[in-house]
Amino acid sequence: MTDRAPVAAKLRVMDFNLRYGEFQALKSVSVEIPERQITALIGPSGCGKSTLLRSLNRMNDMIPGVRVDGRIAIDNDDVYGTNTDIERLRRRIGMVFQRPNPFPLSVFENVAYGPRLHGKPSRAALLATVEDGLRGVGLWELLKDRLDDHALALPAEQQQRLCIARALATRPEVLLMDEPCSALDPIATRRIEALMRELVGLYTIVIVTHNMQQAQRVSSHAGFMLLGELVEFGLTEQVFGASRDQRTADYVAGRFG
Q: Are 33 and 24 in contact (CB under 8 A)?
């Protein structure tokens, strides 16, 4: 196994529990997510991996009856602290969802939406932000003359890239991606994976995926979840090739799930 230098943690999850009413979806989860790396959360459907992902920027707050205890921190800032500015938190920790969900607006207005929401930038500043965002996801040359086109008219892969550009326009530190390729064909999936590898030099990326090959291709670290527990976390090559827990070994070998 390849030796790697230790990487500083960007996110720390400490003895974190989450309940939907009487159902406990996350059970005493503790993990340190490394900075400017791609971390993959894997596990069968209903294991809690998307719930954990959404907990990192408090997206679960929107669900009635949710209760949490324990702690999550970005750097040294308490995500669930009583004085936490949730709007600022979600600028720091952006999210891309399972299916492309561009707003029913133009290409330009999709990328400009976040900066407009969080301030009153000039038109010149917005143009620069939109160009930077589209360049960052490899869409600028394709769309620079089509900024007024309706975003929903784009192919699915371009829509997902546009959603990533929209998330990056608020200059987050962390990018959460919940099954970002599940609605895409294999060619588009490879392009989005290549984009992830390009972005990781600037951002901490956490993805949820059911695709074991994808987790191995793109991530440096992986966590296996089962029934709300984080069973195992480590370097991806170790989790897949030398699992410490038999449940992990059985899952990555395809014996269940």
A: no
Please state the pTM of the whole predicted model. Answer: 0.92
The whole-number mean pLDDT for each consecutive block of 10 residues of the chain, a chain of 257 residues, reads: 71 98 96 98 96 97 94 96 93 93 96 86 89 94 96 96 94 95 90 93 96 96 98 98 97 91
| C-alpha–C-alpha distance, residues 241 and 238, integer Å | 5
List domains and CATH numbers for the chain: 9-99+176-252 (3.40.50.300)
Q: Angle, to 10 degrees, between the axis of helix 156-168 and the axis of helix 186-199?
A: 20
Nearest to 223 by CA among 242, 211, 208: 208
- Match 């399972």 to its residue by tokens: 98
Task: Count the Cβ atoms, other than its own, within 10 Å of residue 241.
Answer: 12
**CA-CA distance, 194 to 60, in Å (whole number)?**
29
